[in-house]
Each structure stands twice: as structure tokens, then as C-alpha cells.
Write a structure and sequence with these properties.
Length: about 350
């Protein structure tokens, strides 16, 4: 099998630790080129990872490197400027989440990817966790069979915790960018400064859960209510499933408590996910079935596999045309519509 020729743009903290290291382990990927604005860092990272071509910007990489796909990892405020260049060059692309800052810009990026006929995958790695994928399938199966009655509620709890989970720092050399790079996207202009701050925090952090709710349900939803302290968001799916997203109801220091409960008339699927940078960890799923004879519990035992590595594998398979993209830009644009509705409901 021929290798997918890959370029990496951006080798900051997430670029190195959550992305580059994973692609370097995939046997069907050839890391061809690396671009970063910071000269010492890009040279050191390329040397350490054995990447032959090194460039000073994403535009230089796109002009000179023979790659099919680009993994571009940088602050999401830059996506609006960098991603169109990648897509117009006909390269498949993966960026981190959120897709950008405004839903209107996100829809344009999605449209550009469709026009170019390339994959644009957003780094919602929680979709790639083996337990998430299993839970999604079980929700669909239970809903289709009706054996456990109707799905009534998807309850999500996401207190802030230790997201790096002991991950070490990459060898960033602390050097400054050679050039300023593209100008960042502005926050939605129809929001006050305070609303912009809340919106930015929401899209930086809870956009993961906003996205996974749609993935698990397999349908879109609307925001019905946000309590004034913004700890609780209530939604409703197109088919009428109630949704609750509990945000910073409490904080954790050294742990990670991320839970999803899909509640049926006569059963519950309880998904628990790991801290984002917990390597060699996988989520877990507990299945509760109620019957006249009593309740039964079953726990699914999955092999350890880091969702960030699974994400890299699934992106390369989508680039090869073997599977549909698991986390397309179309969904990511809808996430920003939910985020904008979150602010509207707070007014
Ligand atoms: N999935 C998660 O759970 C999770 C967790 C934390 C952060 N993130 C996301 O990660 C992103 C931030 O990543 P980071 O911490 O690695 O950022 P960073 O700022 O540490 O690094 C970005 C790098 O990109 C380079 N760069 C910027 N523009 C460039 C260009 N035009 N050409 C070439 N290089 C360019 C910069 O020089 C820098 O080295 C954000 O989008 C954030 O949402 C995701």
C-alpha cells in the first residue's frame, strides 16, 4: 500500500504532543514536510521526527512540498486564514477544534472543502474514542429495536479537570515567530465584550460536548434554555430527546470526570471518557438493562487506545477514501450555531 504523503503545519504544544507524534507511528504515512513560523523550533522538531523538508509558513509548504494532506495545528482564531489556502490547494486537511470562531465563517470553510472535493476533518477526538463509537452504535440499535423503550434524555456532565494528565512538555525552544503570520479572526461582532469572553470560553472548552451530543444522537438539536449562571444548558433534539449539558458545576484538580448517560425507558448507557491527553487510555461503557426480573449491569472492556491516535488513523483512512470522515466540517459549523444560540439564550 502506498503511503499518504503528509505535511504538518504548526508544531506548538498540541501539534507536537497530540498530533505529530501519532502520525509518526503510522506505517502508512510519510511525514514529508513541516512548517512553523518559529525557526529554531521547526528545525529541532523536524530533526527529532526525521522530517526532511522544513518551511517557514503554511504558504511556503503548500507551494513547495508534494503532499496530499495537511495537519494544521494552531490557535483556532487562525483557521479562517490558513485553512482556505490548504483547501484551495486541493489538500485534505485536519485542524483542531473549534473549526473557527463564527458559524458563518465555518459554513464557508465547509463549502470550500466540498468544492475542492477534499476531506476537512475537525479534531473532535472524543468521537474517535472506541467507547464513544460503541455507545453511538448501541444508542442507534436500541432506538431502532425499541426493546428498551424510547430514548428520553441524554445527560452530559463535564466539570473542568486535569486535561493534560501528566503529559510532558515538548521541546519548544521559546523562540519567537520570524513573521507575524496571518491576522486572527474576530469574535462575533453582535456580542458585547462580556458575551465575547463567555462565547470564546464556551467554544474553546464545551464545544467538544456540543459536538459529541450530535454524534451520539445522530441528529441535530436546538438550545432551549441556559441558566443565568451558565452552568446548565438544556436542549432538544429534532426527534424530541431532551438534552442536558452540565458545565463547570464543580472543578477537579488531578482527575477527569466526563460522563454521558443515554436514558431509555428501561435502560441506560453510561459512557465515561478519559482526559484528552491521557495516552493509552480508552473510555468505558456501562450498560444497564431493566426488566421485571430486576436490573442487570454489563461493562464493556475495550483495549487501551488513545483517542488522539485513533483520530490520526481515521483521518488517514478518510484521506484514502476507505471511510467517510468521522468528524466533518459540516457538523463543526453546526456546533458554532449551538454556541451562538448559547449566548442568545443567556440574554
Ligand atoms: N482537542 C483538545 O482537547 C485540545 C486541547 C487543547 C488545545 N486544543 C486546540 O489546539 C489548538 C492550539 O494548538 P497549540 O497549543 O499547539 O498552539 P501553539 O500556539 O502552541 O502552536 C501553534 C504553532 O503554529 C505555528 N503557526 C501559526 N501560524 C502558522 C502558519 N501560518 N504557518 C506555519 N506555522 C504557523 C506557530 O508558530 C506555533 O508554533 C487550538 O485550536 C485549541 O483549541 C485542543
Amino acid at each position: 500500500m502506498s503511503k499518504v504523503r503528509l505535511g504538518i503545519v504548526g508544531c506548538g504544544y498540541m501539534g507536537q504532543r497530540a498530533h505529530l507524534d501519532n502520525y509518526a507511528t503510522l506505517p502508512d504515512v510519510e511525514l514529508v514536510a513541516l512548517a512553523d513560523l518559529r525557526p529554531q523550533t521547526r528545525q529541532e522538531v523536524a530533526r527529532r521526527s526525521g522530517i526532511p523538508e522544513v518551511y517557514g509558513s503554511h504558504t511556503e509548504l503548500l507551494e513547495k512540498a508534494d503532499v496530499e494532506a495537511v495537519v494544521a495545528i494552531m490557535g483556532y482564531g487562525l483557521h479562517h486564514a490558513v485553512v482556505p489556502d490548504i483547501l484551495r490547494a486541493g489538500k485534505h486537511c485536519l485542524t483542531e477544534k473549534p473549526i473557527c470562531l463564527k458559524a458563518s465563517v465555518a459554513r464557508q470553510l465547509d463549502e470550500l472543502a466540498k468544492q475542492a472535493g477534499v476531506v476537512y476533518q475537525i479534531g473532535y477526538m472524543k468521537r474517535c474514542d472506541l467507547a464513544s463509537r460503541h455507545t453511538k452504535q448501541m444508542i442507534a440499535d436500541w432506538r431502532a429495536s425499541g426493546v428498551f423503550g424510547a430514548l428520553k434524555l441524554l445527560r452530559v456532565s463535564m466539570p473542568p479537570g486535569d486535561w493534560i494528565f501528566g503529559m510532558d512538555n515538548p521541546p519548544n525552544l521559546g523562540d519567537a515567530p520570524e513573521s507575524p503570520g496571518p491576522v486572527g479572526e474576530s469574535l462575533p461582532e453582535n456580542m458585547s465584550a462580556d458575551e465575547q469572553n463567555r462565547y470564546n470560553a464556551f467554544v474553546n472548552y464545551y464545544i467538544h460536548q456540543v459536538n459529541l451530543i450530535r454524534y451520539l444522537l445522530g441528529e441535530d438539536y436546538t438550545v432551549e434554555y441556559v441558566d443565568p449562571t451558565s452552568v446548565l444548558l438544556i436542549g432538544r433534539s429534532k426527534s424530541g430527546v431532551a438534552i442536558s449539558l452540565e458545565m463547570a458545576a464543580y472543578t477537579l484538580r488531578d482527575e477527569w470526570h466526563e460522563f454521558y448517560a443515554a436514558c431509555f425507558d428501561r435502560g441506560k448507557l453510561s459512557l465515561s471518557l478519559c482526559a484528552p491527553l491521557a495516552r493509552q487510555h480508552v473510555g468505558s461503557l456501562q450498560v444497564y438493562r431493566s426488566s421485571e426480573a430486576g436490573g442487570t449491569y454489563e461493562s464493556l472492556v475495550l483495549p487501551p487506545s488513545w483517542c488522539m491516535l485513533e483520530q490520526a488513523r481515521l483521518f488517514i483512512r478518510a484521506v484514502r477514501g476507505e471511510i467517510p470522515c468521522i468528524s466533518p466540517a459540516t457538523d463543526a459549523a453546526k456546533d458554532l450555531e449551538v454556541a451562538e444560540a448559547f449566548i442568545e439564550r443567556l440574554r
